[in-house]
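Continuing the batch. This is chain 6 of the set; chains 1 through 5 are on the previous pages. Same settings as before, nothing changed between runs. Recording input and output for traceability.
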Amino acid sequence: MNAAERPRERLIAHGPESLKTEELLAVLFGTGRPGCDVVQMSRELLNKYGGLKNLSRAHVTELAPRRKHKESCECVKGIGEAKAVSLLAALELGRRAAVEEERSDTLKSRIQFWARQLAGDEREFIIAVYLDENEKTISDERLSYGGCDGAELDAPYLMRRAVRLSCRSMVLLHNHPSGALMASSEDIRLSRSIKSMLDVLGIDFYGHCVTAGGKYRLIQEDGCSEAHAFFSRAMGEKL
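Output for chain 6:
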């Protein structure tokens, strides 16, 4: 492969989300086998097991059988014990990360999660966090995909989602690719508009955050002291 096609170099240049599954495995394995590059070998492994879900259920000795059993098995050549162990460890880390994310249903955990997720993005996104009557997260999602200069919010969709989820309250956040945590006049107008719409539906609007560089800041407005008090309590900090 030339340098521009190598999975490792592409991951560095464009991030892991830009790679196919077999290319991510190739980065993990590092090397292929004689006559077969590492991407092709990884593709063979995925085809054999039908995907990551089945791979995660495999045992090391199934992926890389002991020498005396190799002749009678259908293992993928080039996958030795070291590669098998690395693969299963990576899959288990992914599983544990998913479990941690599912268990982290507080507003603070979701705000921090999205602040980290959006820290390196060059585009602006708007996120909604829907809360139940116990102030636990029902759902959170990206509402819009914008450009470097902003993102347009589909307000009718936001209201429909809020009603369908039967949420009691909501928090919005969006990132500033510029790195600035200060709210713009457009951000403030958006906050006021969304609050007015949610008031009609009887849903509390507990604030609108700006995130940048992994940090966040609540857009503070006059007349929203109750929302600010809730946000401060939920985040465990003074704003």
